[in-house]
Amino acid sequence: MKTLVAVLLLCALPVLAQDQPAPHKPATQKPLPVSKYLRKVGLLYLQTIEEFSKHCEGLVSDPAAQRECSAAMESWESTFELIEGKVDIELSKSHSEGDARTWTLLKNAQMSKSMYLSGHRLAGIMQTAEGGKAIMDLWVGVYPKCYTYAHETVVDGTYIGDGGCAELVKKATDHKSTK
To answer: What is the pLDDT along the chain (179 residues), one digit of tens a residue?
Structure first.
C-alpha cells in the first residue's frame, strides 16, 4: 500500500509542478502599512479598471463590440489621469510607509490591463490583428499578478511586495521597445 501511494505521488509530481506558479524571491522587506485613504482609493481604482474592462469583453470580430471597446479605451487615459493626479497630491502628504509602493503597484495593474486591452482592440482589425495578438500574449499574464497583489494589499492594509509585478511590467515594456 505504501509503495502504491509513493508511486502515485511520484507520477503526480510532474503534473503538480506544472500547475504551480514559478517560484519568486520571498519578500525580504518588512511589511509596510498602507493608509486608510489609499486602501479606499485603491479599491475604487481597481473597480474602475474592471468596469472599463467590461466594455471590451465582446468578440473582437464583432463591429459593435469593437466600437464599445474603442469608446471605453478613448476615455480610459483621461479618467485615470484625473484619478492619479488627485491621488499623487494626497500621497505627497502621506506618512504611511507602504503608500508609495502600493500606489506604484496599483498603477502597474492599470497600465498592464490597458496594454492588454489595446492589443485586444488591434486584434479585431484585420490590418493589425497579428500585432494585436502579439501584444495580448505579452501582457496576458501581467495584469492578473499585478491585480492580485494590489487587491490583497489594499484589502489587508499591508504592503509586503508586488509578487514580481514590476519585473513583469519591465520585461513586457522592454520586449515591446526592442521590437
So the answer is: 333 223 322 333 333 333 334 444 444 578 999 999 999 999 999 999 999 899 888 766 678 888 888 888 889 989 999 999 999 999 999 899 999 999 999 999 999 999 998 888 787 777 778 888 889 898 999 999 999 999 999 999 999 999 999 999 999 999 855 55
The grid coordinates of residue 79 equal 479618467
State how far the Cα of 168 lies from the Cα of 165, in Å rounded to an integer.
5
pTM of the model: 0.78
Answer yes or no: are the C-beta atoms of 172 and 139 closer than 8 Å. yes
For residues 124 and 136, is the Cβ–Cβ distance under 8 A? no
Counting every residue written for the chain, the total comes to 179
Chain centre distance of CA 31: 21
Q: Which residue has the cell 500547475?
A: 19
DSSP output for 3-29: HHHHHHHHHHHHHHHHHSPPP-PPP-S
